[in-house]
Structure formats: C-alpha cells, structure tokens
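Regression test attached.
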Amino acid sequence: MSKRTGTDGSLLASLPWTLGALAFSVVPHVQFLPTWVTGIFLGCSAWRLQVERKRWRLPPAWIRIVLAMLCFIGVLASYESVSGVGPGSALLAVMAALKLLETKQRRDQFVLLFISIFLIMSSLLREQYLWSLPYLLVGVLFTMTAWLRMSDMRRIPLRQSVMTGGRLIAYAIPLMLAMWVFFPRIATPFWAVPIDTSSASSGLSDTMSPGDVSSLSLSDAVAFRVDFEGEVPPQHELYWRGLVLYNFNGRTWTGREPNVDSTARRSIEVNGDPVSYTITLEPTRQQWLFALDVPYEWQWRQNIRMGRHHDLSRVQPIDQRFNYRLTSYLDYRLARDLNTNEHGWYTRLPDGANPRTVALAQQMREDAGSAETFINRVLRMFNTDDFYYTLEPPPLGSSPVDRFLFDTKRGFCEHYASAFAVMMRAAGIPSRIVLGYQGGEVNPMGEYMIVRQADAHAWTEVWLPRRGWYRIDPTAAVAPERIEEGRYGAMMDGVAASWGLNAPTQWIYQLQMTWDALNTKWNEWVLAYGPDQQGNFMQWLGMDEPDWQKMVLTLIVILIVLISIISALIMLRYRPPPKDEAAIAYRRFTKAAGVSPDTGETPLMLASRISRENEALAKDASDITALYLDVRYGPPELVGIARLQSAVADFRRAH
Amino acid sequence: MSSTTFRFPDALRFTTYRQKARTRVRRWARRRQGVDKPVTKLQPRRIYILPTGVGLVFGLMTFTMLLGSMNYNNNLSFVLTFLLVGIGFVSMHQCQRNLVGLEVSFAGVDPVFAGQAAEFRIAITNHSKNRRPHLQVYVDGIVSRIDDLEPGESRVFHLEIPTRRRGYVRLPRFGVRTLFPFELFRAWAWLHMDLSGLVYPTPARLRPEPPPTQAAHGHRQHDARGEEDFAGLRRYHEGDSPRHVAWKAYARSGDLLSKQFSGADTSSQWFDFDEVTTADVEQRLSILTRWIVDAERTQADYGLRLPGTEFPPAHGDAHRHRCLEALAFFDLPADDGAETT
C-alpha cells in the first residue's frame, strides 16, 4: 500500500526523538565502531528524517535486503566474528539504520527503541566509568521520552513528555536500588564470552626478551590498587610478585602456564609480622594475580591457586575488575630443598649462546670462592662499572646478553635481571626471573596505593643451599633511587624542576589523586559489588548467614512495600480537584437547618422553603444564602469565603 | 482421490478454545460486576490489566539483559536492567490508575436503517487533576479513536456497531481501555450498561410506485393536515414538531399546545401494509420504509396502516420516527431479532 505512495508525515512528531535517543546510545560506541558503520547510521537517520519531511517514498524491499546482506558481510569482514561487544554493537547500529528504511508506522519505532536500550547495555559491558551511571540514566530518560512521544496521540509539549518520563523513571529508581542491592549475585558465569576481543591485553607479557623491544611502556594506566589493613611497608619492600620465568633459550625467557602446585605453599617458611591487604586488579584478560612477595594466605573460594613458583593465578581470566584479599610475609624462606631435577632446570643455559658472559661468570665464580661473594661481586660490577639505567636502550641483536654486558651497558630492569640470571646459571647457581611490579604510590585522598603499568618490573631469584630462593634485584644495584624512592619521587622532582614551578603541578597532582580516589570508591562500592561484598553487606544489615533464598524473600517484601507506596503516590496525582469550600459550608448550614436540597432546587428556593417550614430560621436562611450566592457568583473581592464560614459556624452554634 | 478436504477436528483448533475461554471470562466478569448504571465511575476492582505484545517483548528483553548482567557480573548493566524492570512495574500501576475514577456515561445513539452502523456515543469525563492520555472505547473488533482527556475534560467516543436486521441493536457490553504510558500494559474495564439502539428496516432499493395521492377523499380529508392554513390548537402530543408548538400560548398559560393546520390542497397518501404487493414480510416493510423516507423528503403528508395499528397522515421528524419505529418492531417477538454484539 505504502509502496506506491510516499510517507504521510505522521511520524514527524515522534521520529526526531526516536532518532535522538538512538544517536545518544550510539555515541559511546563511535570510537570503537568502523567508520562506515557510523556513516551508514548517520546517513540513514538523516535520510529517513528527510523522507518524512518531504513525503518521499521508502526504498523497495529488494534494496533493503541487499543492503542488509552487505552490512552483515561488512561487519563480519571488519571483526571476523559476530559475537562479543564490538561486533554486537556494530550489528545493532546497522540494524537500527536498516530498520529506519522500513519504518512506516508509528509502532515500527518500538524496534528502534529496543535497539537503543541494547546499545546502552553493550556500552556498559565495554566500559564502566564514573560517568557511565549518569550517562545511562540520561539515555533511559531520552529513550522513554521518545517512547512516550511515539505513543501519544496528540502533539504534546516536549516539556510534558520529559516530565512524565522523568517522573516514571524517578518512581522506578527506588525499585532499581532495592533490586540492585538484594538481587543475589553469582560467582561463576553461565558462559564465557570474551567481552571485547578487539582491545589488547593490558597485563604483563608472558615472556621476556630483553633487547627485542627497545623501549618500555610508560603507561600511566592503573594496574591495581591496594588497600593495606595496617602500615604500608617501605617502598623498597614493595615487590609485587607476578609470574616466574625459568626457561632461557639465549634470547627469550619463558615460564609455565598458570598452574597449581599443592606443595608450593608448604615449602614457604615465614617469619615476622603478616601484612594483610586487598588488591583491586584491573582487568588483564590473563590469569595471573599479583601479590606482595610472598603471599601466604588467600581465599580458596575465589578460585585463587598457587603455582609451582609461588605465583598466584585465578582459574578464570580476569575479565572484570577483581578484588582479592591476601596476607603476605615480607620475611620468608622459599623451598630450601631443591632436588637434582629442579637444580638442573634452573641452571640450564643453551649451548654456545652468550659465550663471553658465560666465560666471565665462570671466571668470577672461581675467583670469588663462595657463592655469596660471587653474587656480591656481580652486583658490584653492575654498580661500579659503566652501567646505566635507561628506558630507551639500544637494540641488542644476537647474543643479547653478551652485547649488553660488554658493549652497550644500557638497559632497564629486564636487561639487568636477564644478564644477572644468566651469569648465575653460568656459575651453577639456580636462578629465575620474576615479573611483576615494584613500588606504588599512596593516594593521600583515599589512603590506598596505586600501582601503575609503568611500575612493571623484573627481578631475579637465586637459590642457595640452606637459604632457599631469595630475591636479588640487580636493577637496584644500578639505579637504587628507582627502588628506594619509587618512580614517583623521581618523577615529581623532575616535573617540578622542568616546569620551574611547584604549585600548579602540585595542584594538578592533587586533582588527579582526588579523581582517582573518587573512582576507587566507585569501583569499591558499585562496580565490585559481587557475591562476597553482597554477603558482607547483608550481614551488616543484620541477616544471619545470608543465602539467595533469604535475599530473594527480603527483596520481594521490600518490592511489595515500595510498589504500594509508589501506587499510592500515583493515585494521589489522580485525586479529584479540591472540594468547593463554599459548597461544603452551605451544605453544613442546610444540615444544621434540618433540610436536604431536592434535585434541581436552587439555594433561593431552598431558603424560601426553610422560611416556610420554620419561621425562626427565616432570617439566617436568607442571610446565609445571600452570602453563599455572593461567594459563588459575585466578584472574588466582594465577600471572602471566611465570612460565609463564620456565619455558618455561628448558625450551627445557635441551633 | 477423495474430494473432501482435510479439516482439523474442532477440538484441536486453538481458536475455538480461545473463543470459549474468552466467552467464559466475559460471563464471569458480567456476573461479578452486574449491570451498570448509565453513568458509572470506574472503580479499581473492575479494572483488569495484562501485558501487551510489546510488553512481552520488553519483558523478554529485560530477562535477556538480566542474564547478561549476571553472566558478566556487570553492576552497571544490573542498574540498567533493574531500572527497566522498575519502569515496567511503575507503568503497570500507572496504566491501571489511568482508568480509575473515570466517569463513563452513555450519551445516546441515533436510530439507523438496517445495514448502517449504529453510532453509540460513550462520554468519558476526567474529574481528576491529572491528564488521562491514550483512552479508547471498544467492543470486540470495533474501536473508537484513541483520545486524551485533559483535567476536568469530557469527551465523547463513538462506537460504530454494524446492524443487519431491523429491531434493536444491542450493546450489552463495551470496554474502556488504555495503553498509557509505554504501551507495555493494557488496562481495561468492562461496562455492562445493556445499551440498545433502534434499527429501522432497510429502505428497499427497487420500489413499486407508492399508492396514488388521495386528495379530498371523504372523511379522511379531516385528517389530512398540512401547513397551509391555521386550523386551531390542540394539546401537545409527544412527537409534535417543535416548530408547531404555540410558544406564545405557552408563555401565557404554561400549557403546551400544538398548532393544527388544514388546507384544501393538502395531499396525503396512505401506505398500507396489506396493499404492498409482495409476499415477503421483510420485503414489504422495506418498501414501506422507502415510501416513508421518500415522502418525508418531499414534505408530503403520509399515513401508515399496519395490521392492528394506524398512523394518520402527517409529516415531520416525529411522525417519520413513529412510523419507522412501528415498522422496525412490526411482528417482532419480544426478544428476537435483536442483534447481540
């Protein structure tokens, strides 16, 4: 029918709002979408609006089908997949654009509004910032207002639609809060779909090849935040243990996949005071967890496991921000016993690689006499020879350790750790590389510690009989300030000096810290609200042994109460207009006079009837009736309602 | 090859069950509510509510979103999902409240000829301070236009009920419904006012010529009242044209009198049921209807004679109505021929 004729312009009242709501939902996706998808969406929107305005025709079905197929192939080609948030949101945007081409009736816009909601949802799956909450509220308000305008028959003022939409959403917010708090959270997902395959992993690399990558990322991105329960240990003790590498092929260090070793924890002996803290790890899409060297207690039910090299990992990859509480001991002994097999693994070097280093190490070992002396001499060599700490070392080519030790002598932690470990192995001392983070910055606003990607660090562990594995950080021998002060002390001094100003930098720094503190609270209270936090909160509320049945029951009771209140509030809005006070007063008078007005009887007729029936009331009746008529029909300033009311009150007192 | 086409047994057909269920629910509602007064205020207990198709899709969508939020333990998705669920709850109550307290009244229906649609007028008044959007009156597949009511406003909604046979067109039940605010729910109230309208017989299309005009024919001339000459006053009878009421006399005495006219050139015709040369009763009634309609158009006087009843010649809306009404009810059993919708 409408194939032949153009559009009738009936959607002009609602379509702009539907398109607006859709565009608002697309905005957070734009930076992730291929340009052509955004282009198609904007093009179709503008074009459809113009069609409605100019009463043009919509395209025939075959064009739409061809376009739909092209778009689907396009998305498939851009993402090589149709699952996940990236392709999902691209498909939604394309669907919205194509649906616009066949939106003829008012009701077709329902589909568009549903797509709009799904787009908001997928942007939340991708990223959850502090501003995401206001964004989603405004998005829902936008969508629901468009919905009201689509559903309304008359053209009503925009203000009225927004007010109605806003009012209904305001009623829904307490319900949302109750459901959000009490709806039972589950620990394990139903299915594992990568949230976003397109964004690269931001965690540490699983391998280390000093000399390949010529510079280190100085990303300020947060790796994790730490909330210490007691004193914060000094900077030089803050070694955040991650994964351990022990295979060396002459160039690259590799380790094992995340693994479980039930004997690992038993081989730890601890001394001194425990340090307890909670780490909030940003998503890494890896399984590794970070812990202050060396972790001793953790929560098994969070699926945290210790591997063979005293490394912690979680069974599932960290796709979401992850909170875990740990207890570490800074004074420890690891694996005092090492069997011959293990001894072999940790001293293995590829034949013929880095021959100069091997020769040097063997020479130094012979000269030194004891292993301890040898280790100290190597460290002194790093300290006193011409070694420099730099973040942009020259590339090293083949035999990288040889070239580093004898030629370039410039590098960062990876170079020193690798060279040191190779020298140890050459001298027959078991050694391995630990990757993790070193240091951290205490945020004075929130009293917690921020560890950033730029704090990534590599150090070594060597094994000596009776001593077990212990940490040696060769970088500390080269650049002790890096370890003692932490990166920030050095950086802040540098920044302040280079600007020649102290105050503004301090001020910006404060602002950054405040923002981070706010974000941390947000993460801690809102985003991290999972099964454990919920259980704790329920206990705090007074629920013993919270389980899902109790929570659901409580939720139902709360919802019933809230809905009754909301229903009453809605009913209040529909109450009849205030009663006519003049009529009430006059009715009181007639009641006191003992008569009831007949249908169609006017006040004057009633007054004369009263006079007829009871002479004594005649005067009052005519006076009060006159007053009533003046209030009712006279100009407002003639007689106040109060006079009528007091006259009636007098009459009632008298009779 | 068998020529009979395969049919599902009735018991297997879904629509039959649906219809049965629908009839049963209606009977139940009727028993529960009883017959309504012509002016009825909608009380909460008589308002029913169910999700619409869009509402079901909305529910499915929020359920999917809930599963997604649970899977990813994504707390902002939970916020969005629960906000939508909350909006669903709120809109359910808002939808029901949009009907509560409305005053529904019957505002009349004009007689129609069988085959035309009888237009029942249902007035709805909003006595509250709040706007009532998206209201509609309906019965079965017949709907009025959708309209909004401002505070204090009253509007008439039209239900066009098709008619097939003369007699009464009945409207034992109709509904008032709303989809406000988001068309997720449909709230409705059934009203059983037992309304009925009058249906005249269909005027015949092909008609024999009406009987010849009888001018100045014996004693009947007396009755042949035209409007030419004033012949006197008589007491007002219901149905007399207001144009003929002697308003001046009413102002003086307070008695309603009608002016009577007579004229020598007044022509009058008698339409006699027995003189129509067709065997079929309905056909005869149709022809008589046609004659009356045509005669009225030319302002000619006409009388109608049915077995047992007689309407002396006259014209005017009231006369026409009396005659057509008699035709509509002619030989109609007390409760037969009524169209129940």
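Expected vs. actual: identical. The radius of gyration of chain B is 29 Å.
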